[in-house]
Design brief:
This protein is an alpha/beta fold. 46% of the residues lie in helices and 17% in strands. A six-stranded mixed sheet has the order 3-4-5-2-1-6, covered by helices on one side.
Length: 428
């Protein structure tokens, strides 16, 4: 296998830059750069020189032997000064060394997968970790990256293999009397695995929301202060505000971090009956996005109640409370009255929902788990037929095992790798 190299830190000026090499030729590269390979996992300050012996930079060198690195291969890291000129000079020099070539995007991680250092769910979690913007996203990505989902899959798989062993004993000795009735143990194993899969499936929607973001729609009549509230929450003029009703025609989105959760606030067109064709389109979009949102905030101006749009846990506050003081929760985007309280309520509501998040964080995970659970359901039904349908039950258990294998990348991995690694940077 070729030895690859890439800049692993962000391009541009910085105090430190890290250039990573992985593959069988890292020892030869170290000799060419600084005269000798440092000891395993020992930081060593070395002078880096070009092919003519000219001094290029001073760098901290780290060497990780095969089996003890991120990729599973011999890895060399050069922690150099973060000058664009230094980085360019070193990358040019590395490209001239025999057996070395620049890495493709995500190739270091791909080698970690190929060498068994990571499973497919960990690779996906690493991609999510690199993209994480909030604390909740970081925690969720780290939980899967640590191997928790893969470990669960191993437990389920071992239970299913045990069940298969018992079923196949029954099939192989169908003409003989098996001394022990294996069906109760098989049923218990399958039921336990299915319960675990169903629990993770149930937590998928919340986990996916943590990954991609919750949506909160701000709703109300025209000129109820929705755009002003959005601008106050965003801290900038994200939406045009005007005293004229119907200013907002399209859905305006603002991404925020609320209590560590990724939240997209939606400013929508004022809800009313109108003969204006363009405004009607905006109201239709507002209703559609509101119905699909995770939470709705209604600005109540004493007019329509919008009961047809309300769902459980939705929030209702009195609009423009600075102009019309009254009882109950009031809010004013113009003065900031009640805004902190509203943010607290939104955060508390979404945080409570986030507690139910599982470790299946991608649609691919959910699909594989649903396939595995459906196969186990079919296997349990087949067990009701006794020995006559044992072979059917065994085949369904095989199908469930294949679904779990596809989840962690034991089979069918090439079908998803291209999409995953397209989001990775060169040094990862």
């Amino acid at each position: 296998m070729e030895t690859i190299f890439a800049l692993s830190t962000a391009p541009g000026k910085a105090g430190i830059a890290v250039i990573r090499l992985s593959g069988p030729a890292v020892a030869a590269a170290a000799v060419a750069l600084c005269g000798a390979l440092p000891g395993p996992r020992q930081a060593s300050l070395r002078v880096l020189r070009d092919g003519e012996g000219a001094r290029l930079d001073e760098a901290v060198i780290l060497y990780f032997p095969e089996g003890a690195s991120f990729t599973g291969e011999p890895v060399l890291e050069l922690q150099t000064h973060g000058s664009p000129a230094v980085i360019s000079a070193l990358l040019r020099l590395l490209s001239t060394l025999p057996g070395l070539r620049p890495a493709d995007p995500g190739e270091f991680t791909r080698r970690a997968l190929a060498n068994g250092r990571l499973d497919l769910t960990q690779v996906e979690a690493l991609a999510d970790l690199l993209e994480s913007e909030t604390e909740a996203q970081r925690r969720q990505a780290m939980r899967v990256f640590s191997g928790s989902l893969g470990e669960k899959c191993v437990e389920w798989r071992m239970s299913l293999l045990r069940a298969l062993t018992l079923l196949e004993v029954t099939i192989d000795f169908a003409d003989e009397e098996v001394p022990v009735d294996v069906f109760p143990e098989v049923r218990a194993l399958l039921t336990s695995a299915k319960s675990g899969l169903d629990t993770e499936i149930a937590g998928f929607v919340v986990a996916e929301r943590i990954r991609s973001g919750f949506e909160v729609a701000i709703l109300g009549a025209p000129n109820a202060g929705k755009s002003t509230l959005l601008n106050t929450l965003a801290g900038r003029e994200a939406a045009i505000t005007s005293e004229h009703a119907g200013t907002t025609r399209d859905v305006i989105e603002v991404r925020m971090d609320l209590g560590g959760l990724p939240v997209t606030l939606l400013d929508t067109a004022g809800l009313r009956e109108t003969e204006d064709a363009v405004e009607s389109m905006g109201i239709a979009r507002a209703r559609a996005r509101a119905a699909a949102a995770d939470l709705r905030v209604f600005l109540d101006d004493g007019g329509r109640d919008f009961d047809d749009l309300r769902q459980a846990d939705d929030i209702s506050v009195r609009a423009k409370a600075d102009l019309a003081p009254g009882k109950g929760d009031g809010i004013s985007g113009l003065t900031g009255l009640g805004v902190d309280r509203l943010v607290g309520r939104i955060t508390e509501t979404l945080a409570a929902r986030a507690q139910g998040g599982g470790m299946a964080i991608r649609a691919r995970h959910e699909a594989a788990m649903r396939s595995g659970s459906a196969a186990l359901d079919a296997a349990l039904r087949a067990l009701d037929g006794g020995e006559a349908t044992t072979d059917i039950a065994a085949e369904e258990v095989h199908s469930s095992v294949r679904a779990l294998d596809s989840l962690v990348g034991r089979i069918g991995v090439e079908t998803v790798l291209g999409e995953i690694f397209a989001s990775f940077c060169l040094g990862k």
